[in-house]
């Protein structure tokens, strides 16, 4: 646990399940105030709120599409209305989109992934940083990226492009606001045992494990532990970096195909 996080307010987008939910749960254990964001899973969001409150934190759920300016502003407004401020913004919302060769991918399929994964992170960062600047808050922005910001993902160009863009988004924001005391970092998970990977069985699971030097999928709680550290005062001198939580997956991608 990190004492400096107690009482801080965080927004975690896409936090009704998966990695976002694990980060929100960890923040609850840190006795933080958390805005739970969902798009199509209100039941999961309500469950997350209840779990955080039982852990000693506080939480409030907000349904919003982070690819829209109005949705992101609604998250900021809820944080200020219910908890009085915003200290930490976690841009976690994202999805893979359709698996297809690039020449078979429609513009709509490309755009939707870019809108949620990259534009959503930009909007969340922009609104949070503007609030922090206006209120002289030395806060933290955390973008949840992927090993595919570094390793190309065949058959899923829109996802790889969105995460590659997130890398540059993170680094450029960090340079712009480092002298204001606002830190911007990213975490890049590898293959994590979440709902999206539940269908990996048999030969598909074995093929994926072959790409991971540690020969195991990560746990959402392991990503959440990294998130708690990187937004805490323990990481006060860390900005503009990507922390890979991937079991070594990015070390030798060409040899592990």
From TrEMBL:
Belongs to the short-chain dehydrogenases/reductases (SDR) family. Its EC number is 1.1.1.100. It comes from the Bacteria. The keyword Transcription regulation does not apply. The keyword Oxidoreductase applies. PANTHER family: 3-OXOACYL-(ACYL-CARRIER-PROTEIN) REDUCTASE, 3-OXOACYL-[ACYL-CARRIER-PROTEIN] REDUCTASE FABG. This is 3-oxoacyl-[acyl-carrier-protein] reductase. One of its GO terms (molecular function) is 3-oxoacyl-[acyl-carrier-protein] reductase (NADPH) activity. Keywords: Oxidoreductase. NCBIfam families: PRK07231.1 (NF005559), PRK12826.1-2 (NF009466).
């Amino acid at each position: 646990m990190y004492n400096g996080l107690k009482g801080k307010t965080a927004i975690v987008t896409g936090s009704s399940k998966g990695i976002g939910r694990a980060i929100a749960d960890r923040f609850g254990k840190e006795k933080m105030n958390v805005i739970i964001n969902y798009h199509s899973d209100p039941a999961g969001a309500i469950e997350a709120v209840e779990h955080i409150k039982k852990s000693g934190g506080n939480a409030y759920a907000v349904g919003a599409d982070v690819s829209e300016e109005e949705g992101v502003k609604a998250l900021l407004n809820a944080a200020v209305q219910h908890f009085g401020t915003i200290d930490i913004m976690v841009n976690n919302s994202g999805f893979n989109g359709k698996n297809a060769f690039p020449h078979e991918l429609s513009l709509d399929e490309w755009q939707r992934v870019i809108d949620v994964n990259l534009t959503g992170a930009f909007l969340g960062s922009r609104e949070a940083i503007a609030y922090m600047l206006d209120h002289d808050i030395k806060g933290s922005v955390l973008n949840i990226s992927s090993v595919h910001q570094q390793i190309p993902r065949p058959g899923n160009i829109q996802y790889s492009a969105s995460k590659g863009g997130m890398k540059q988004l993170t680094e450029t924001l960090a340079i712009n606001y480092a002298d204001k005391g606002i830190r911007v970092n990213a975490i890049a998970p590898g293959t994590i045992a979440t709902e999206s990977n539940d269908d990996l069985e048999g030969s598909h699971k074995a093929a994926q494990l072959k790409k991971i030097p540690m020969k195991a999928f990560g746990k959402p709680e392991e990503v959440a532990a990294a998130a708690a550290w990187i937004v805490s005062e323990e990481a006060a001198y860390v900005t503009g970096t990507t922390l890979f939580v991937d079991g070594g997956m990015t070390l030798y991608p060409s040899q592990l195909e």
